[in-house]
Amino acid sequence: VHNNMFTQSKADSHRFRSQASPLCWTLENVLEWISDNIEGTNFDARSLNLAYCALDGPSLCKMSQNDMIGVFGPQLGPHLHQSLLKHKAKTNAPETIHRKHTDILSTYYFAVLTLTTPFRRPTDLVIADILAPRGTHLWEFIRDILIYPEKNHGLLKWEDRREGVFKFLKSEAVAQMWGQKKKNSSMTYEKLSRAMRYYYKRDILERVDGRRLVYKFGKNASGWKLNELPSVM
DNA sequence: TAAGACTTTCCTGGTT
DNA sequence: TAACCAGGAAAGTCTT
C-alpha cells in the first residue's frame, strides 16, 4: 500500500477516484474531483478558499448541501453536492470494504499530501500550488507542514504565527519524513538540524536563542506568511 | 564534464 | 546522562 500510494500516477488516481466510493478518496482525490467540477462550470477557482479544500473522502461525505454552500459558495457548492450524490449512487458498494481501505489510506494521508508529485493542469494550478509541495528544499518541506497544522499530526507547531516562530514537537518523526522524501532511511534530527543551522547564514532562518527545537523564518523564506497564502472567499 | 548550490555525515565541544 | 545546539570540514547529490 505504502509504495503504491507514493507512486500512484495521475491516470491511476483518476481511475481509482471514478471507481471507488467517495468514502475511500484521499485528499488528493478530493482535490482532483473539485478541480474536475470547476472545469465544467464558469467558477473562478482563484476565489476559492483552498484551505477549506483539504478534505478527505469521509470528511467530504459528511457535508450537507448547506455545508458545501458555506465552504464552496452558492455557485459551486450545490454543483459539488449534486456531483457527489451522483458519484455515491454510481459507486454504491458495501461500506465495510471501503472503511478498511479508508483506514489504510488515512494512515498515509499526510505523507501523500507532502510527498506526491503535483498534478499540473491549467485549472488546478492554484490548488496544486497550495496543497502540494512547492519545492524540494528542507525549509520548504518544513514550511509546508506548518501551513496545515490540522494535518501535521503534531509534528510541528507555530509558536508565533505572525513572526514565523515554530517549534518541533516530534523532531525525530519530522526527520524520518524528510528522510523518506529524500529516500534516505538514516536521516536523524541531528543531521536535519545541521542543515537547518546552515539556513542562518542565508537568512532563511533566524536563530532563536535559548529555546530548544525552536526556529524562526528569516527574510529570505517565503510562502509562510498569512498574506502570502491564496485569497479567502 | 565542471561548477555551484544544497544537503548529508561526522565530528568536537558546549548547554539545558 | 540524554537531548539538543553550534559550527567546522569534507563528501555526496543534483542542477545548470
From TrEMBL:
Superkingdom, taxonomy of origin: Eukaryota
InterPro entries in UniProt: Ets_dom (IPR000418), ETS_fam (IPR046328), Pointed_dom (IPR003118), SAM/pointed_sf (IPR013761), WH-like_DNA-bd_sf (IPR036388), WH_DNA-bd_sf (IPR036390)
Domain named PNT: residues: 4-91
Record GO biological process: cell differentiation
Localization annotation: Nucleus
One Pfam family per UniProt: SAM_PNT
GO cellular component terms listed in the entry, alphabetical order: nucleus
Primary location: nucleus
UniProt keywords, alphabetically: DNA-binding, Nucleus
The ETS domain, residue ranges: 136-218
MF-aspect GO terms: DNA-binding transcription factor activity, RNA polymerase II-specific; sequence-specific DNA binding
Homology family: Belongs to the ETS family.
Protein name: Uncharacterized protein
Organism the protein comes from: Periophthalmus magnuspinnatus
